[in-house]
């Protein structure tokens, strides 16, 4: 994921420099995490509104509904044994695999798990800079819904995750929100967080759904 962030940062920086009045970001699925990596690591960004469209901001834990028929023997219970290893971290999804039963491994400094660094849940010498950079945005717009079928749990699109009892832990209950580790609580306090829950939209349909764009996204692009 950091490789992708580095590559895309260069492209985005050129676009930002060409539009000094400021830009907006619309980032879909895994791209929402890549964009967040750009925002946190690029101190010179001029992003106004960041629209996170069905993106696993709270991490992934579980096999997406759409692939279960093809991989019935894959168990999210044991995959951490592969994902939370140096070799496993070469796989993108492993970089944001959020196993509530093994958060000690998720936060393990030597692994440098991408999402743990973004959340400042693991030691990060750039932690303060990441937070300050993220807080340069004016608004964070989070869009997701219960019929997504890929983001697991779907509440991850709003920084939710499973807890150790298999129940949903909402954004406001997350450790990184309570501690304001990367600025999420600050954004909430200044009224800069917008959450939209939209039923009836499958994961692959979000970028093409005109109602989603017209009703929930277009107004943030002025």
Automatic annotation (TrEMBL):
Belongs to the palmitoyl-protein thioesterase family. This is palmitoyl-CoA hydrolase. The keyword Glycoprotein applies. It is found in: Lysosome. GO terms for molecular function: thiolester hydrolase activity. Catalyzes the cleavage of thioester bonds from S-palmitoyl-CoA or S-palmitoyl-N-acetylcysteamine (unbranched structures) but does not have activity against palmitoylcysteine or palmitoylated proteins, branched structures or bulky head groups. Conversely, hydrolyzes both long and short chain fatty acyl-CoA substrate. It catalyses: S-hexadecanoyl-N-acetylcysteamine + H2O = N-acetylcysteamine + hexadecanoate + H(+). Its EC number is 3.1.2.2. It comes from Lingula anatina. The keyword Protease does not apply. Transmembrane segments: none annotated. Signal peptide: none annotated. GO terms for cellular component: lysosome. Keywords: Glycoprotein, Hydrolase, Lysosome, Signal. The gene is LOC106157519. It is an enzyme of class 3 (hydrolase).
